[in-house]
Amino acid sequence: MKYFVLAGEASGDLHGSFLVEQLKKVDENSEFEGWGGDLLAKQGVKIHKHISELAFMGFVEVVQNLSTIKNNFKLCKKQIEDYNPDVVIYVDYTGFNLRMAKWVKSKGYKSLYFISPNVWAWKAKRVYKIRDYTDMMYTILPFEKEFYKSYNIEVEYFGHPLVDAVDRYEKSEFKEFCKNNNLSGKPIVALMAGSRKQEIRHMLPIMAEIAEEFTEYEFVITGAPAIDEEFYKEFIENKPVKLLFNKTYEILSHSVAGLITSGTATLEAALFGLPQVVCYKANSVSVAIARFVANVKYISLVNLILDKPAVVELIQKDLNKTRLKKELLNILPNGARLEEIKENYISLYKKLDQPGVYKRVAVNMYNRLLNE
User: Fold this and answer.
1) Among 40-49, 252-261, 290-299, 361-370, which stretch is predicted with the lowest mean pLDDT?
2) Which position has the higher pLDDT, 253 or 94?
3) Pairing between β-strand 87-91 and β-strand 46-50 as defined by DSSP bridges
4) Which of 175, 250, 306, 323 is the most exposed place for a label (fewest CB within 10 A)?
5) Are residues 281 and 313 in the same domain?
6) pTM value?
7) Measuring CA to CA, which residue among 182, 200, 179, 183 is closest to residue 191?
8) What is the DSSP string of 288-341?
9) How far apart are CA 78 and CA 274, in angstroms?
10) Are residues 178 and 151 in the same domain?
11) Partners of 223 in the beta sheet?
């Protein structure tokens, strides 16, 4: 079968690549084209648009890039028509993919959605678009299945794919990791400042500044794959931090604590058992609009899944040097919140099911397409 995969962000590229890997095993005649990043490309997907050209964060930033986004829709429609796939697979990337889904449905293509948009978090009617324009939703959070069922939407839940990604990772030796990456050998604090330029602009300066207060630790940034090194330099020049690319899981596995931007990264850190402080700062207008329409108590996946403040969230004005220093101290070795966080992580893992998610999703997708 011919598959067109639509992934517009780094996390979608990661999850999409593992899904494609499994689809190739169940469908020996599979062909793949789509939008994504280097990881999907490595799986043999012909990439028509790279994620480095696609990530816009926040209401204001989207408005500022409207002409680019409109052109992307036109381009994507033409590419799908030229390829004429048996199915279009959406991987997260909510705003773009839900708009594409309406057009895809009108053209008669099958459409499967892997990794649900956070429609449960917003006072919006996106859930009805999913019902009307997709053939199956594959959720990755345990509470999403009942949510979709309440709207009579076909849904499957096979667990969270990050359990797979973390489970298959083989940890290296700490000394070897430090030697190979010119690190000092001090205990590491991971800095995950986001995968978009807008996020990095808002988050990284305060993260880098706090590093000067903790000289007994080495602060290491997990470089976003779609962002070049030059972009980071203005935020970290003359700061005691290191920048490494394509080493995210190595950094997480070897760190003693993390300052993590809200998003998929918070769950990745938790699955590695890494104590964390969740950070979020954005354009003030975008945040004001988000707070008006949002329907959730928390911004981090860890807290949303556990439905309690298992990890500290510092949002907007709360993300300042004084508060960040205090909360980091609480999660470093012998910190006041360390044991509590570890207990919460055990509960989290139990809720997310077992490894093998990508395989179960791929088998279900392939069988569904064969039988329709």
Assistant:
1) 290-299
2) 253
3) unpaired
4) 175
5) yes
6) 0.76
7) 200
8) HHHHHHB--S-SSHHHHHHTS--SEEEEGGG-SHHHHHHHHHHHSTT-TTHHHH
9) 44
10) no
11) 245
Of 283, 332, 278, 273, nearest to 301 (Cα)? 278
CA-CA distance, 287 to 293, in Å (whole number)?
Answer: 10
**By C-alpha distance, which of 142, 148, 145 is closest to 130?**
148
Identity (one letter) of the amino acid at 150? S
Are both 232 and 293 inside the same structural domain?
A: yes
- The residue range of the domain holding 275 is 169-351
Task: Tally the domains of the chain.
Answer: 2
**Where is average pLDDT lowest: 64-78, 128-142, 144-158, 259-273?**
64-78
Same domain, 255 and 342: yes
Q: Is the separation of the CB atoms in 224 and 243 below 8 Å?
A: no
Q: Using a pLDDT cut of 70, give the percent of the chain over it.
A: 91
User: How do the residues of the chain divide into helix, strand and coil, expressed in percent and rounded to 5?
Assistant: 50, 20, 30
On the 0-12 / 13-18 / 19+ scale of CB atoms within 10 A, 106 is exposed
Q: Are residues 148 and 216 in the same domain?
A: no
Instruction: Examine the domain organization and report whether 360 and 345 are in the same domain.
Output: no
In angstroms, rounded to a whole number, what is the distance separating the alpha carbons of residues 255 and 51? 28
Q: Please give the Cα distance from 11 to 93 (Å, whole number).
A: 9
